Amino acid sequence: MKNVTPLIELKAVGKSFRTADGTDRAVLEGVDFALREGEIVALLGKSGSGKSTLLRILAGLIAADHGQVHYRGQPLYGPARGIAMVFQSFALFPWLTVQQNVELGLEAQGVARAERNLRAAAVIDLIGLAGFEGALPRELSGGMRQRVGIARALVMNPDVMLMDEAFSALDVLTGETLRNDMLELWDSGKTPIKGLLVVSHNIEEAVLMADRILIFSSDPGRVRVEIPVHLPRPRNVDSMEVRGLIDEVYAQMTLSPADIAALTAGEVVPVHLGYRLPDAEVSQMEGLLEMLAAAPFSGHADLPQLAEESELSDEELLPVYEALRLLELVHIAQGDITLTALGQHYSHADQALRRDIFGQQLLQHVPLAAEIRHSLEQEADGELGEEPFLRRLEEFMKEEEAERVLKVAIEWGRYGEVFEYDFHTGMLKLPEDAAEQPKAVN
Predict the structure, then answer these.
(1) What does pTM read for this prediction?
(2) How many Å apart are CA 127 and CA 162, to the nearest integer?
(3) pLDDT tens digit string along 351-367?
């Protein structure tokens, strides 16, 4: 590398939040990370693993609770002029023109109007928006709005750029075009950027862009594995070397908690009540099972190949893989997915039998669903409000995450006829034929 001193360095960084019962829960713990001059680093991990929290610490927007954060060898105590961030949501002011949105940061720094105009015009041209200086955000496509967001970061002359899912809100072709344009700018040396950190859910994107890929663990978040990428850019997505790296990253991203514990010689993390259930819809799970059971896969597939066939993004697919494995309908190892015997049976079953199997697996493998069912069985009228379960989840996670996890459990439980839910009252209740169903495992 060009410089032995990292652009940004984190040592043993930790960050916690206060739960509903007053205890501290770690979002990040023991995070060691360095972004060096001349490199692009991609950061992958599950939703809720703390990636966004880490970016905010790197940007100086929030402080770490523990550890050290340095920018160019100096402690980082707040936002630094040399660090810029691009957001997934574009974050443009709708009443300002392209030129005004790009100039906004310079204006906040007190840069004179003439210089602001010159610098903004230069980056607008550089990012491919010349001629749109007077346009409002509503008049632009999604790709063009994200180009404005990138231009707004570039105009600050940063030497570190942080990109938080910057291409994920765009359609596939637009995102690919913008990513390639960014790589051309990077390789051309026309921008002041000396280090780039890209947070993404897109495995192919990470392999095509990055010099290093870091995979984050969850609860708490920390760097679990680092995969170096020594291939020159531009990279051919169909080459054997790139496909091999994509397989390797898929294999790492789909490890179970027990697999991770075995690899790290750590304590096995069971699926407990506070487990962050993946955002997977039952229709997605069943669609993937049916695709996997049919030709040409016939029950076994390479994960990247299955992703191409399904035309779903990694952000959509990874939670589905996790859910299917959690319910023991598939087995995933070394980047391959295989239907279990039960998964084979499920994929060929009628709807009534599928619901029955789904409910049984839910009670056996999802403690939250089992606790809801067991609690309802203890009530004389078989009914309970959702609030007690939200409070229990908030002992493990933030309120918004608790709401998401409970929503997933309710959707799965309703499909498997484990319990019913009234969306108007927020009441959970036993199904009418509960006496004929298996009891919750407690």
Answers:
(1) 0.80
(2) 17
(3) 999 999 999 999 999 99
